[in-house]
Specification:
The protein is α/β, with parallel strands linked by helices. It has 2 domains: about 160 residues, Alpha-Beta Complex (Aspartate Aminotransferase, domain 1), CATH 3.90.1150; about 250 residues, Aspartate Aminotransferase, domain 2 (3-Layer(aba) Sandwich). The chain contains 15 helices and 14 strands. Strands 4-10-9-8-7-5-6 form a 7-stranded mixed sheet, with helices on both faces. A 4-stranded mixed sheet has the order 1-2-3-13. The chain has a 3-stranded antiparallel sheet with strand order 11-12-14, with helices on one face. Helix 9 links the parallel strand 8 and strand 9. Helix 2 runs antiparallel to helix 11, helix 7 packs parallel to helix 8 and helix 12 runs parallel beside helix 15. It starts with 9 loop residues before the first helix and ends with a helix. The structure holds 4'-deoxy-4'-aminopyridoxal-5'-phosphate. 4'-deoxy-4'-aminopyridoxal-5'-phosphate binds next to helix 4. It is an enzyme of class 5 (isomerase). It holds the Pfam family Aminotran_3. Pathway: Porphyrin-containing compound metabolism; protoporphyrin-IX biosynthesis; 5-aminolevulinate from L-glutamyl-tRNA(Glu): step 2/2. Its cofactor is pyridoxal 5'-phosphate. It is found in: Cytoplasm.
Length: about 450
């Protein structure tokens, strides 16, 4: 059987204690600390296909996939071989190389963009795209949506979604920073609107539109749990382009995940700029931003907007990204199989929760899924306020029920899970069996 019960976390506990002594909270990215669900974060020793193995030797079916990059599954042979091949020739040149050209050609072709610039993280991509939008338009303000996360640049840590929904207490006001250390003056340059509320965006743009450099958004939200945009909201987003503001699709999560051209391709979006991360680097540190040639030509050294990176275009990272995207492109059935697995998982969870008398509301699109622990009809959770009505304690207990049965689910109610192409029927059956038991646990007090 693929699942196994575990009460053995001695090695992870010991590592967590050592980590806490030398690293804030013991982790290098907050959500990894299991703060909202409690318990010991598992320290991972290795990962293959759909599975993780922790420091105590326990195996888990993984639904995080490194928070998105591992769409092919962990340690995929094509990616491993491409990185091993690149490794023979040196790890960083600080000078241009052929792989950067190849990946840029591939990305622009798949996404219908003119030009792309590589960074080393999604945060750098969104931060740079906003600077570019301000440089191109000569305007100062940006608009973002409550519960959307775009990385941790100062001006974007405003009403910023999952990690902050999970780890910070207290109500957040209009344009209030969601982190200490962000000056109100920075936050004041970021206007916040409601996701899936076209009238709110129209009103905001009617009042301030002439000052707005860019509207940045998650085309499918992963960072408040999965939220799917309505056609009316997408139409309102496109209206901002008529007012001289650039439309920036943050596809760091959805790029190459929902289709070869991300949510943009799936939903018929026409952004001016797009940001990528995660899958574009195949599990190595890569981000990118790209789009219209006339806008991208404002980037240094061609144009006046400065942006740089010592390790940008790193040959190992480019090799991993190239192998991942080429594998995705070569396998015509891959997105259909991901959708099929994930919709079966969604249907299974709905049926099992109903059978156990547990209220959940499932949002699912392609290989992204969130079960919100609340009684709203399936598919009806559309914005941050509705997502926040979930029973996070119930979710936390269900999460622990899954984890103890060998299923590594995202450790927060306000995250998407990510299914990989390595997940097969065997993993689906084992997951639903564990989910059945975890729902039953909720009825035992
Ligand atoms: N944008 C979105 C939509 C994201 O989901 C993330 C990370 N989860 C980021 C930006 C930031 O990317 P990174 O963590 O690579 O800096």
């Amino acid at each position: 059987t693929t699942t196994q019960a575990t009460s053995q976390t001695a090695q992870s506990e010991a590592l967590f204690a050592r980590a806490r002594a030398v690293t804030p909270g013991g982790v290098n990215s907050p959500v990894r600390a299991f703060k909202s669900v409690g318990g010991t974060p598992r320290f991972i020793r290795e990962a293959h296909g759909a599975y993780l193995t922790d420091a105590d030797g326990t195996r888990y079916i993984d639904y995080i996939g490194s928070w998105g990059p591992m769409i092919l599954g962990h340690n995929h042979p094509a990616v491993r071989e491409a990185v091993a091949d690149a490794l023979q020739f040196g790890t960083s040149f600080g000078a241009p190389g052929e792989r950067e050209v190849e990946l840029a050609e591939l990305v622009t072709r798949l996404t219908g963009t003119d030009k792309v610039r590589f960074t080393s993280s999604g945060t750098e991509a969104t931060m740079s795209a906003l600077r570019l939008a301000r440089g191109f338009t000569g305007r100062k303000l940006i608009v973002k949506f409550r519960g959307n996360y775009h990385g941790h640049a100062d001006g974007l840590l405003v009403e910023a979604g999952s990690g902050l929904m999970t780890n910070l207490d207290g109500a957040l006001g209009e344009s209030a920073p969601s982190s200490a250390g962000v000056p109100e003056e920075y936050a004041a340059l970021t206007l916040v609107s409601e996701y899936n509320d076209p009238a709110a965006l129209d009103t905001l743009m009617a009042e301030r539109g002439a000052e707005v450099a860019a509207v940045i958004f998650e085309p499918v939200v992963g960072n408040a749990g999965v939220l799917i945009p309505t056609p009316e909201f997408l139409a309102a987003l496109h209206r901002v382009q008529g007012m001289g503001a650039l439309l920036i699709a943050d596809e760091v999560m959805t790029g190459f995940r929902l289709s070869l051209n991300g949510a943009t391709g799936l939903l018929g979006l026409k952004p001016d700029l797009t940001c990528w991360g995660k899958i574009i680097g195949g599990g190595l540190p890569v981000g990118a931003y790209g789009g219209r040639g006339d806008v991208m030509d404002f980037v240094s050294p061609q144009g006046p907007v400065y942006q740089a990176g010592t390790l940008s275009g790193n040959p190992l990272a480019m090799a991993a990204g190239l192998a991942t995207l080429r594998t995705l492109e070569a396998d015509a059935g891959i997105y259909g199989r991901l959708e099929s697995y994930t919709s079966q998982l969604a249907d299974g969870l709905k049926t099992l929760a109903a059978g156990a008398g547990v209220a959940i509301s499932v949002n699912q699109i392609g290989s992204m899924l969130t079960p919100f622990f609340q009684g709203a009809p399936h598919g009806s959770v559309r914005d941050y306020a509705q997502a926040a009505r979930s029973d996070t304690q119930g979710f936390g207990r269900w999460f622990q029920g899954l984890l103890s049965r060998g299923i590594y689910w995202a450790p927060s109610q306000f995250e998407s899970i990510f299914v990989s192409a390595s997940h097969t029927g065997a993993e689906l059956d084992a997951t639903l069996e564990a989910a059945r038991a975890a729902f039953a646990d909720l009825n035992q007090t």
